[in-house]
Specification:
The protein is of the alpha+beta class. The protein has two domains: 57 residues; 156 residues, Rod shape-determining protein MreC, domain 1 (Thrombin, subunit H), CATH 2.40.10.340. The longest helix is centred in the first third of the chain and has 44 residues.
Length: 268
């Protein structure tokens, strides 16, 4: 059953056990300390030998293999960075959608959420496309808003998508009023064209108006397209025209039209 070396090991163990049991207590303790020292030294030597072997293996690893390992690590690093960025994008989109749904609970209008799926490349500021159409109940001239305020109106409708003309476009004039005074005017493009990506003109205000920078502008409800009370923007500059008969103003929009990703269609 046992080979000869195994018999010798067992016999040596028994002899050492017998000697250890027959020794006086003092000698026995000395022998135990000696055996422990030998074991520690031997274990340390074994660990040092293993470490030396590892270093030797690294030293003899071919440069080609090391290069591939480095390339693999770099590829893994790039993949993890991409995953991190994607997770950040998803988290931000979830935050926006959560904010949108909270806004829906608070608004007094019936609304339907739509995603912006395109822009007119030749007129990228004034027209966008949304992923809602006739089959979703969208009709021409329905108002489009974002959480912050007015965006524009539906200008044409397809079966599954619609075109929206944005506030500030010549085709999207908006009846507006000063929130603090109720004085009415019209939001439209400036006489010389667009004033900027986030600036529109407020025209036809009475000359005796107390219009001033900082006043909030809302939709007036005059007309058949936009209901009353949708936030439009804030007056940043006002001036008197026609020898004091009228005033106009520059209004900074509440909505950043360049960053639209989701909008609301006012269905009622």
């Amino acid at each position: 059953m046992f080979k000869k070396p195994q018999y010798l090991a067992i016999l040596l163990t028994l002899v050492l056990a017998g000697i250890l049991l027959s020794l006086p207590a003092r000698r026995k303790n000395q022998l135990k300390r000696w055996i422990g020292t030998v074991f520690v030294v031997g274990f340390g030597a074994s660990r040092a030998a293993d470490a030396a072997a590892d270093k030797a293996r690294v030293a003899v690893t071919p440069r080609k293999v090391l290069g591939k390992q480095l390339a693999d690590l770099q590829e893994e690093n790039q993949r993890l960075r991409l995953q991190l960025k994607q997770a950040g994008v998803i988290a931000r989109e979830n935050d926006r959608l959560r904010a949108a749904l909270n806004w829906k609970k608070q608004t007094r209008w019936e609304v339907s959420l739509a995603r912006v799926i395109g822009r007119d490349p030749s007129n990228w500021r004034q027209v966008i496309l949304i992923d809602r159409g006739a089959r979703d109940g969208v009709t021409e001239n329905m108002p489009i808003v974002a959480n912050e305020g007015l965006v524009g109106r539906v200008s044409s409708v397809g079966m599954t998508r619609s075109q929206v003309v944005l506030i500030g476009d010549p085709k999207c004039k908006v009846g507006a009023m000063i929130e603090s005074t109720g004085e009415a005017g019209v939001v439209e493009t400036g006489k010389s064209g667009a004033l900027g990506r986030d600036i529109v003109a407020l025209n036809y205000i009475a000359g005796d108006s107390e219009l001033k920078p900082g006043d909030r502008v809302l939709t007036s409800g005059l007309g058949t397209v936009f209901p009353k009370g949708i936030p439009v923007g804030t007056v940043i500059h006002a001036r008197t025209l026609d020898y004091g008969l009228t005033k106009d103003a520059r209004v900074k929009l509440h909505v950043n039209l360049n960053r639209l990703e989701h909008v609301w269609v006012l269905t009622n």
